[in-house]
């Protein structure tokens, strides 16, 4: 049996490079893709912490990647063997009740399967279910390694952040969390020409990066007067669009403080513990709160934006490692502030 190298979740906090069987076509709707690059997501770290019960030890991690189509099931359309493709973080059958509603994250036979319920992309090869809607051909002008950010970070930032927060021309936006998804939210928010975009984080290096990506202002949340600094930027009115991109109780609490009358809070972060909702303060302020998984329905649009030069994705992948150094890649991502890392890619 042919084998391949893969990054395998072997137990709490542990990732190992192991030999695994090379995947094969199992359904007519499958494709097998030879990976060029994969990347690590914050959700992978949640798996290592044991926060994702559906992800069992022995799983090949990863749901982001770019590669070359190696084999196709008989029902797959739109890509060919040899095509260079982006692998969507969400697989979609296109036919079930949720796909028909555009909520492909909850596809009855797909959704977040890769690196969660089935082996994922952090391997030399991956089997991609529902390949017709889950693979996207990449124009030659888009570099493969940079494109991994369009598997998940950019559609998440756009859909769960910018669109959910109803970012509009001339509005005010605050983004809590300057990680890869927060940065993607910043870059895609700029496409909607808000008058003010503010980034909040503990890491001064990331705040500097956010300014280089187009943030109008930044605030370090370690400051004792964080709230007053942020409110002063809106003349005390609060923000129209508030995007939470961390996933801890303190940041969601801050979002509730920052939403202005008629504002909209978009939760993007993955929350592992309960948070408090202060309805006693919000009930009469016409506040909306939206939370969702990414559906990745905007991926074709994002690819066109990158191809046209309107969205520069080249700066988000800051570190890359060969597959044999996969454990080091995880260590780097887990200590991202120490290494000044945003997206960490794995090369095959």
CATH topology of the largest domain: Quinone Oxidoreductase, Chain A, domain 1
Low-confidence stretches: none
Supply Rg: 20 Å
Under CATH at level 1, the class of the largest domain stands as: Alpha Beta
Q: What is the count of β-strands?
A: 16
- Per DSSP, what share of the residues sits in E-state strands of 2 or more residues? 25-35%
Give me the secondary-structure category. Answer: alpha/beta
Helix content: 25-40%
Give a short overview:
By secondary structure, the protein is α/β, with parallel strands linked by helices.
Task: From the structure above, extract its key features.
alpha/beta, 2 domains, 16 strands, 348 residues, 13 helices, oxidoreductase, Quinone Oxidoreductase, Chain A, domain 1, Rossmann fold, seven-stranded mixed sheet
Question: What can you see in these coordinates?
Answer:
The protein is α/β, with parallel strands linked by helices and 348 residues long. The chain folds into 2 domains: 203 residues, Medium-chain alcohol dehydrogenases, catalytic domain (Quinone Oxidoreductase, Chain A, domain 1), CATH 3.90.180.10; 137 residues, Rossmann fold, CATH 3.40.50. It is 27% helix and 26% strand. It has 13 helices and 16 strands. The strands form 3 sheets. Strands 3, 5, 6, 7, 8, 15 and 16 form a 7-stranded mixed beta sheet that branches. Strands 11-10-9-12-13-14 form a 6-stranded parallel beta sheet, with helices on both faces. Strand 12, helix 9 and strand 13 form a beta-alpha-beta unit. Helix 5 crosses helix 6. 50% of the residues are buried. The model has no long low-confidence stretch (mean pLDDT 96).
């Amino acid at each position: 049996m042919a084998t391949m190298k893969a990054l395998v979740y072997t137990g709490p906090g542990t990732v190992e490079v192991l030999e695994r069987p090379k995947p094969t076509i199992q359904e007519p709707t499958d494709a097998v893709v030879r990976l060029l690059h994969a990347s690590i997501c914050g959700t992978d770290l949640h798996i290592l912490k044991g926060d994702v019960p559906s992800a069992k030890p022995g799983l090949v991690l990863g749901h982001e990647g770019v590669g070359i189509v190696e084999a196709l099931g008989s029902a797959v359309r739109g890509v060919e063997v040899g095509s260079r493709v982006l692998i969507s973080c969400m697989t979609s059958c296109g036919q079930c009740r949720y796909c028909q509603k555009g909520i492909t994250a909850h596809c009855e036979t797909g959704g977040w399967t890769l690196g969660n319920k089935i082996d994922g992309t952090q391997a030399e090869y991956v089997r991609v279910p529902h390949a017709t809607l889950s693979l996207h051909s990449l124009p030659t002008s888009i570099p493969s390694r940079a494109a991994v950010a369009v598997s998940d970070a950019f559609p998440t930032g756009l859909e769960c952040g910018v669109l959910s927060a109803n970012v509009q021309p001339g509005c005010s936006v605050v983004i809590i969390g300057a990680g890869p998804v927060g940065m993607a939210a910043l870059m895609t928010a700029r496409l909607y020409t808000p008058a003010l975009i503010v980034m909040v984080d503990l890491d001064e290096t990331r705040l500097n990066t956010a300014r280089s990506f187009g943030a109008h202002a930044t605030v370090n949340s370690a400051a004792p007067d964080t709230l007053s600094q942020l409110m002063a930027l809106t003349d005390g009115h609060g923000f129209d669009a508030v995007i939470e991109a961390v996933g801890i109780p303190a940041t969601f609490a801050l979002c509730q403080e920052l939403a202005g009358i008629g504002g909209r809070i978009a939760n993007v972060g993955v929350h592992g513990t309960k948070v408090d909702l202060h309805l006693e303060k919000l009930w009469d302020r016409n506040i909306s709160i939206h939370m969702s998984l990414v559906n990745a329905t905007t991926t074709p649009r994002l690819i066109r934006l990158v191809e046209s030069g309107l969205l520069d994705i080249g700066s988000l992948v800051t570190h890359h490692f060969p597959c044999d150094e996969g454990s080091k890649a995880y260590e780097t991502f887990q200590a991202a502030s120490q290494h000044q890392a945003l997206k960490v890619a794995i090369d095959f």
